[in-house]
Design a protein that fits this description.
The complex is a heterodimer of chains A (508) and B (372). Chain A has 508 residues and is α/β, with parallel strands linked by helices. Chain A has 14 helices and 23 strands. Classes of the chains: A alpha/beta (508), B alpha+beta (372).
Chain lengths: 508, 372
């Protein structure tokens, strides 16, 4: 039986779980360390010696933090293929000034690229590419991000440019947009460029992780799947924002529900998301990472200011959004503090047994009733955002603050699942993750039939899942959709596919 | 009547123009970025009423023709805009005094802003639709007819596209049932498809034609809507309520998208989006048919609003307009109706832009005449 360790590196705690056949056999919670990876080692050492995991899946915030804090980022060259198309929007348009200032990125427009129907916009010019490679080598820039017009549908030009670049300068690492982003040139280029800026850090981080873990290393992606270490070093951008996804995936499996609402109750907020076919529903509009607009997949999570440390107004029963946060154990009444928090009210109401109950004996039933009224109202509104009328979804309650609202949800007549190990749902979500691949392609229906377009997108998604470490015979398609182009008589077709599969252990 | 806009107004203009874009007109984000880049600093653009144009002068409108999705790979082409402008300007038989948008909705209103700022000429406060529509013959210029023989040009990423003789001066309908301008639309659409799915049509109109056909006040309206959304967001007030207030509109339902059906037919994106009400609208259902833009709103099984009135969707939380290409289950949106320009609701106009023009056998009942 294969053992897998899942590790979630959170802002406060680093959680580790050991999973065999989907069951948690051991778990540990240690404080997150500034260097992150000694926390991982610490968490792993709490797990039984006898149990050596085959794989370790890590959900890490290292890359998100680097982007947000503008630290440890490499300078990169953005090479846009398709001149003169798109010259009105040079690379990095709309980026925050401090991020631009943190690196010395360069921008190039070169000939090449395609129209939606595959016609070349211009011819690729090897001399042009060679000169760029020489210039970058001279400037000591080791990262390039190549983005071609309609590159998601016709990736050939990006691949050719990468070959020519590395033929000239073997030290140059090249990120290709069709491997990273979706349709939408600027957001795809942004994602690719951020990836290039993270790549050297990713190599260092992954080497450190690999040294810390005695097993095959996999990294959580923001779509609820993992990628192997080799791929994570190539596309670290996919590890950004994987935390909420892990939590929801963990809740889905722990709660044995594929269609459900997940509420993760923390100290300051409750994060809500909805599971569809066992995966978080993706977010819609305006996705930004560190102030930069991107277009890769992220979960649709709503946060409301209801948590264990939320301040309570006894007069009207309102809860949050202010919270004592991490200082709950100093400031809450039950711990000898002088701030009335939601935890105090829950203790007074008898929902949980924590701290010194006598310290909240003065909280009357009228206050409790007002607070519960308030919570009922807000929670039922929150749930409505995710449900269809007459078809309520079960609620999976995870996170340390779960007992605070459980009785209220039940009082609403809701089916509430509070699975065991819910407080390590994140790490469990990392441990049980499958491997995924995604493709977003455009075709001209003059040359490709709809059926063929769907097949090709599906094949591409499968291939990318294999590349990410999936075993070939376990792959299933979880998303396959086409959206036709509007305003065009020429019948263009845009197709998106996503596939997941089990981790191929031999691939390590 | 005239006023100024600056680069700091671009976001509000783009936001407002996407609201009146009724789900189409192209995603305005890239246009907004280009405008911000080119109008950096203290450029002030004067916006004037068409009556302030010199009587014998002309105004030029640059417009993109093609698939909104192609715009996501091919951001606005300045080269194409300049080529079209030069060609039309050379053919003008009088002074050029202003620029304007043929279609206020979505991306389109950014192009004349760019050219007007470069030329140091004013922008007309008006357009040819007061919203967005999928086809060229759906402008008030085609509906009411303009002076014959006005110059126009087609251009693409590499410059001018040579004129197609079949497309010249074809404002006459092919059959008596066809709306005016349909032949030109078909010819241009064909050229567009052959040229990468996105081309630019630059046209000039004389003041006399414009004063008769222009939908007036659409730039001010878009700005008013955009600013209302921005200030509501800043003040933590309801951004959707701000839209209805700014545009004299009506809120129909706040809900979540539960289903999107799409079909690709005749070069357009047809479909239906279904919503279920939330919170105070719980228990209500809505269904909206679209052809690139939202056309017909059904509320609990009854027709509640149709073209040419404006049906527009905004993200409930942020007020961000939701275009048809990004619809997907789970989005939380509010459906709004805004009144169409009176120029779009005459019997002649309804032949081109009423429910029947889109194949719907439904009578047009104006927003204002519907019971609350």
């Amino acid at each position: 039986m294969k053992l897998v360790a899942g590790i979630d590196v959170g802002g406060t705690n680093t959680d580790a779980v050991l999973v065999r056949d989907g069951q948690i056999v051991a778990w540990a919670k240690v404080p997150t360390t500034p260097d992150v990876y000694s926390g991982i080692i610490a968490a792993l050492t709490y797990l039984p010696d006898s149990a050596v995991p085959r794989r370790v899946h890590i959900g890490t915030t290292a890359f998100t933090n680097a982007l947000v804090e503008r630290r440890n980022l490499a300078s990169a060259a953005a090479i846009r293929v398709g001149r003169p198309v798109s010259e009105s929007l040079p690379p990095m348009t709309g980026w925050p000034a401090d991020l631009q200032g943190a690196v010395h990125n360069r921008s190039y427009f070169v000939s090449g690229g395609r129209e939606y129907d595959g016609q070349p916009i211009g011819a690729l010019d090897r001399d042009e590419i060679r000169n760029i490679a020489r210039g970058l080598a001279a400037a000591g820039i080791t990262q390039a991000a190549v983005t071609s017009v309609f590159g998601t549908s016709y990736p050939e030009d990006e691949i050719r440019v990468a070959e020519w670049l590395t033929a000239e300068d073997q030290n140059l690492h090249v990120s290709l947009s069709h491997r990273i982003g979706r349709f939408g040139i600027l957001e795809r280029e942004n994602s690719t460029l951020l990836n290039a800026m993270l790549q050297p850090l990713a190599v260092r981080t992954l080497n450190a992780y690999q040294a810390a873990v005695p097993a095959g290393l996999f990294i959580s992606q923001n779509d609820g799947t993992v990628m192997n270490g080799v791929r994570a070093a190539e596309v670290p951008i996919f590890a950004v924002a994987s935390g909420p996804t892990n939590s929801m995936r963990g809740a889905a499996i722990l709660g044995s529900a594929r269609e459900a609402i997940v509420l993760d109750v923390g100290g300051t907020t409750t994060d809500a998301g909805v599971l569809h076919l066992g995966y978080p529903q993706p977010a819609g509009l305006d996705l930004t990472v560190a102030g930069v607009r991107t277009n890769f997949r992220m979960p649709d999570v709503l946060s409301v200011g209801i948590g264990g440390g939320s301040l309570v107004d006894p007069a009207d029963g309102s809860v949050g959004p202010q919270s004592v946060g991490l200082r709950l154990t100093e400031q809450a009444l039950i711990f000898g503090g002088d701030t009335l928090t939601l935890t105090d009210v829950a203790v007074a109401a008898g929902h949980i047994d924590l701290g010194e109950r006598t310290r909240v004996a003065h909280i009357g039933t009228d206050v409790i009733a007002r607070v519960e009224d308030h919570l009922r109202n807000r929670l039922s509104r929150l749930l409505e955002n995710y449900e269809r009328i007459g078809r309520p979804l079960p609620i999976i309650l995870v996170g340390g603050g779960a007992p605070l609202i459980e009785s209220i949800l039940k009082g609403l007549g809701r089916e509430v699942l509070r699975p065991g190990h819910a407080d390590v749902a994140n790490a469990y979500g990392a441990a049980i993750a499958q491997v995924g691949g995604e493709a977003d392609l455009t075709f001209s229906s003059r040359t490709v039939s709809r059926r063929e377009a769907l097949t090709r997108a599906e094949q591409e998604a499968h291939w990318r899942a294999v590349e990410a470490g999936a075993s070939r015979n376990s792959i299933t398609t979880v998303e396959l959709e086409d959206a036709a182009f509007s305003y065009l008589a020429g019948d263009a077709l845009r197709v998106r596919a996503r596939a997941v599969g089990d981790v191929e252990d031999a691939s390590q | 009547m005239s006023f100024e806009i600056r680069s700091s107004d671009i976001t509000a203009l783009a936001l407002g123009s996407s609201v009146v874009g009724c789900g189409g007109g192209g995603n305005s984000y890239y246009g907004q970025l280009v405008a911000h880049r080119l109008l950096a600093g203290d450029v002030a653009l004067r916006v004037i009423d068409v009556d302030e144009m010199a009587p014998e002068s002309f105004a030029i409108t640059p417009a993109a023709v093609g698939a909104p999705l192609v715009c996501l790979e091919k951001p606005p082409s300045l080269l194409a805009l300049h080529a079209g402008l030069e060609s039309v300007r050379r053919a003008l038989r009088g002074p050029l005094s202003a620029f304007f948008a043929a279609e206020i909705g979505g991306l389109q209103c950014v192009f004349p802003v760019l050219l007007a700022a470069e030329a140091g000429l004013p922008l007309l406060d008006g357009d040819g639709m007061g919203r967005a529509f999928p086809e060229l013959q759906m402008t008030t210029f085609s509906i009411y007819g303009t002076t014959r023989g006005l110059p126009h040009a087609l251009s693409g990423d590499r410059g001018l596209i040579p004129p197609d003789p079949a497309g010249q001066d074809s404002s006459e309908p092919e059959s008596p049932d066809d709306p005016p301008g349909i032949r030109f639309e078909r010819a241009v659409r064909k050229i567009c498809t052959a040229h990468g799915g996105l081309i630019y049509l630059t046209s000039a109109f004389d003041q006399k034609s414009l004063s008769r056909t222009l939908v007036r006040g659409s730039i001010s309206l878009a700005l008013r809507i955009g600013r209302a959304i921005e200030s509501a967001r800043q003040g933590n007030r309801d951004p959707v309520g701000a839209i209805t207030q700014a545009a004299d509109g009506k809120r129909f339902i706040a809900g979540k998208v539960v289903d999107v059906e799409r079909q690709f037919r005749g070069g357009h994106d047809w479909g239906t989006v279904r919503l279920e009400g939330v919170e105070e609208d719980r228990g209500q259902v809505a269904e909206i048919a679209f052809k690139n833009e939202y056309l017909i709103l059904n509320l609990n099984g009854d027709v509640a609003l149709t073209v040419p009135d404006l049906i527009t969707l905004a993200e409930t939380e942020t007020g961000t307009p939701v275009s048809t290409d990004i619809l997907r289950p789970g989005l939380r949106v509010t459906v709004l109706g805004l009144p169409a320009s009176p120029l779009l609701t005459t019997p002649a106009a309804l032949k081109s832009v009423g429910p029947g023009a889109f194949g719907y056998n439904v009578a047009y009942v104006p927003l204002r005449q519907r019971s609350p």
